[in-house]
Design goal:
It is built from 8 helices and 7 strands, in the order E-H-E-H-E-H-E-H-E-H-E-H-H-H-E. It is of the alpha/beta class and 260 residues long. Helix 4 links the parallel strand 4 and strand 5 (135-140).
Length: 260
C-alpha cells in the first residue's frame, strides 16, 4: 500500500499515464496529474480520482518542453503534498520520417519531451527523496528503448536515452532507499493508437483487423495489444517494498517483441 505517499505522473490525462495514476491512487497515493485536456475534463478526472480512491488529486499544466515549468510542477507538488515520493516520467510524443527528411524541430521537440523532461523532473525530486530515505522513479521507455525500427530516429534515440538515464540514476541512488526502473512496453491499446489504426485503415483502404495484424502487431508475437492496466499494475508493484531490490532494470512488457 502507498498510503501517505505522493506521486507525480507526467502525461497522465489519458492513456498509460492516466492508468498508472489511477493504479497509484487505488493503492493509496496522492497524485498530481499532468498533460493536455480541457479544464472541465481535467476537473472531472481529479474529482473522480478523489471520490473513487479517497486520495488527493491535483493537476499541473507544466509544458514538458520547458525545464522551468517542470521545476515549478515539482515545487507545487511538494508544497501541496509535503513531498514527492514517486515520480513517473511518462510524457512522450512521436513523429515518423526517414532520417534525411526528419525535421530538426521535430527531433528537438521529441528529445525535449521524451528524454530531457525525465532528466529535469528526476533532478528536481531527488533532494526530497534523499532527505526522506525513500523514493521510486519509474521511466516509461518502450520496446524501442531496447531495439530499433526504421523512420523513428528521434523517438528511438530518446527512449534509448531514457534507459541509459535509468541505469545512471539507479547507480547514484542505490544506497539512498531510492529505486529507478524503466518499463518498456510494446504496442499498448491507447486512444492515440486507436486513432492511428483508424487513420491507417482509411489511408490504405484495408480493414482495421489487417492494420492491427500486419502493421501494429507485426513484431509482437502474442498478436495482442499490451493493456494499459498491465503496465499500470507493474508500475504500482515497483512502488512497493517488495520491489526494493529492483533498480536499474529495463522491464519488458511487450508480448515477446524483444525476445526475438
Amino acid at each position: 500500500m502507498l498510503r501517505d505517499k505522493s506521486a507525480i505522473v507526467t502525461g497522465s490525462t489519458s492513456g498509460i499515464g492516466l492508468g498508472i495514476a489511477r493504479a497509484l491512487a487505488r493503492n493509496g497515493a496522492n497524485v498530481m496529474l499532468n498533460g493536455f485536456g480541457t479544464p472541465e475534463a481535467i476537473e472531472a478526472l481529479c474529482t473522480g480520482i478523489q471520490r473513487e480512491f479517497g486520495v488527493r488529486a491535483l493537476y499541473s499544466g507544466a509544458d514538458m518542453r520547458r525545464p522551468a515549468e517542470i521545476d515549478t510542477m515539482v515545487a507545487e507538488a511538494c508544497a501541496a503534498f509535503g513531498t514527492v515520493d514517486i515520480l513517473v516520467n511518462n510524457a512522450g510524443i512521436q513523429y515518423v520520417a526517414p532520417v534525411d527528411e526528419f525535421p530538426v524541430e521535430k527531433w528537438d521537440e521529441i528529445l525535449a519531451i521524451n528524454l530531457t523532461s525525465a532528466f529535469i523532473a528526476t533532478r528536481a525530486v531527488l533532494p526530497t527523496m534523499r532527505a526522506r530515505g525513500w523514493g521510486r522513479i519509474i521511466n516509461i521507455a518502450s520496446a524501442h528503448g531496447l531495439v530499433a525500427s526504421p523512420f523513428k530516429s528521434a523517438y528511438i534515440a530518446a527512449k534509448h536515452g531514457v534507459v541509459g538515464l535509468t541505469k545512471t540514476v539507479a547507480l547514484e541512488t542505490a544506497r539512498n532507499g531510492i529505486t529507478c526502473n524503466a518499463i518498456c512496453p510494446g504496442y499498448v491499446l491507447t486512444p492515440l493508437v486507436e486513432k492511428q489504426i483508424d487513420d491507417q485503415a482509411r489511408t490504405h483502404g484495408i480493414p482495421r483487423e489487417e492494420v492491427v495484424e500486419r502493421v501494429m502487431l507485426e513484431r509482437q508475437p502474442t498478436k495482442r495489444f499490451v493493456q494499459i492496466d498491465e503496465v499500470a499494475e507493474l508500475a504500482a508493484f515497483l512502488c512497493t517494498d517488495a520491489a526494493a531490490s529492483m533498480t536499474g532494470g529495463q522491464l519488458s512488457i511487450d508480448g515477446g517483441w524483444v525476445a526475438q
